[in-house]
Write a structure and sequence with these properties.
single chain; 419 residues; mainly alpha; Growth Hormone, Chain: A; 2 strands; 1% strand
Length: 419
């Protein structure tokens, strides 16, 4: 049920983001308009993300996921009606995006935290990779669905189907048959105090700050996924069909990268895996900026999607492996905050720079900066390059205690810490 609900939520967001971006770009013809949309998302996501992480460690995560998806159902249905009556305005897109940017991240930490509740530690890397692969399959289908539903003169059909997917994402989380509350959840502190405790935990962690800074440093200069209308126009002189082709290629690469991760279970240097994937990602950004033929650009996008998926899946797994359940919502929220804030800033930066110096030069610059960031994290944050995953074999349902440390309650501890 968690798997199905993730698919429904992902397709809801994918169709909504693509539909609103294409509608806005066709209405304005401006990369700055898309950049402004990214700034709106950023402004709403930061406070909502921190609050959502604290909520995920206090309340029933299943109900939280369902409630936040209900907002998507209502507002996307509103867009469908407005578009059907030819009354949809630019300010509607900005206002609805602002609200949905907030509600979507409120439920994100709860969804991420539930994975480690339903899957044993020894299979967590495969579980995260499977979720990523499944979502990539969905995002491969999403642009095809968008293209088919956008063959009409407006996007009413696109918004209608998105509304239906949002309805599914409301119902499915409630069908998950486990306790939705975090183990050891505490409600005796104020929510502000819980947020502060979560930030202190992440700050003192030997690995997580480096991973989050890596994601921020690269994404703010290279975010391209929601700006495919710009690249389709400036690099390949195409329209909606080209946008759909690029989205499909990126998702196909993400799927391939997810399967690559499944074969890295025996590779203990998980932090170095993230660094290698991000380094290759930076090199590929430069190659994408040099692409002027659609099929070569699609091949580069496939490779970009693959390396991005390897880095993203490995980061998510490290968060789950190194964080206890009653802190997992806030750690996941910090991860989402880093990623989504970087996405918003990156969308604005790439959108504005594409108008200023062109999409190709923007990608050249982003690739060069990304390579520098990788080497800085490798050099300055030793915990990332030194981390080694040690698998602890524990019988299902058993609690093994080493020197007072209960592994069921302290899954962040590896063998070296126990010694």
């Amino acid at each position: 049920m968690l798997w199905f609900s993730s698919i429904a939520a992902m397709m809801t967001m994918g169709l909504r983001v693509t539909g609103t971006a294409v509608w806005l770009y066709e209405e304005t013809g401006s990369g700055a308009a898309l950049a402004g949309l990214g700034l709106v998302e950023l402004g709403m996501r930061i406070p909502a993300n921190l609050y959502g992480g604290a909520l995920a460690d206090e309340v029933d995560r299943k109900k939280l996921m369902s409630a936040t998806q209900a907002a998507s159902f209502i507002l996307i249905a509103t867009m469908m009606v407005l578009e059907g009556f030819n009354s949809l305005q630019i300010w509607h897109i900005y206002a609805i995006t602002a609200v949905l940017s907030s509600t979507s991240v409120l439920g994100g930490p709860a969804r991420s935290s539930l994975t480690a509740r339903v899957v044993p530690r020894s299979h967590l890397m495969h579980a995260v990779a499977t979720n990523t692969a499944t979502m990539q399959i969905g995002t491969m289908i999403t642009p095809i669905i968008f293209w088919l539903t956008s063959l009409t003169t407006d996007l009413t059909l696109t918004f209608g189907l998105t509304t239906a997917m949002a309805g599914l994402s409301v119902v499915l989380p409630l069908m998950i048959r486990i306790d939705g509350r975090a183990a050891g959840a505490s409600s005796d502190k104020s929510r502000v105090k819980n947020i502060v405790d979560g930030l202190k935990y992440v700050k003192s962690h030997p690995i997580l700050p480096g991973l989050y800074l890596l994601d921020i440093g690269v994404t703010v200069v290279s975010f391209y996924r929601q700006l495919f209308p710009i690249f389709a126009d400036q690099l390949f002189k195409g329209g909606r069909g080209t946008v759909s082709a690029l989205i499909w290629a990126n998702s196909a690469g993400g799927l391939a990268g997810s399967f690559v991760v499944m074969f890295t279970r025996g590779y203990k240097a998980k932090g170095m895996l993230v660094l290698w994937a991000t380094l290759i990602y930076g090199i590929l950004l430069i190659a994408f900026g040099a692409s002027t033929v659609l099929w070569t650009g699609m091949l580069v996008i496939v490779a970009l999607g693959a390396t991005d998926a390897v880095g993203m899946t490995s980061r998510q797994t490290l968060v789950q492996l190194t964080t206890p359940d009653n802190m997992r919502g806030r750690a996941s929220a910090a991860h989402s905050l880093a990623a989504m804030s970087a996405n918003g800033i990156g969308q604005a930066e790439v959108g504005f720079m594409s108008d200023l110096i062109g999409a190709d030069q923007t990608m050249f610059l982003g690739g060069a900066v990304s390579i520098v960031v990788v080497f800085l994290i490798w050099w300055l944050v030793k915990g990332v390059r030194r981390y080694r995953y040690e698998e602890i074999q524990v019988p299902a349902g058993a609690a093994v205690d080493f020197d007072g440390y209960d592994l069921d309650r302290r899954p962040e501890l590896d063998l070296r810490t126990l010694k």
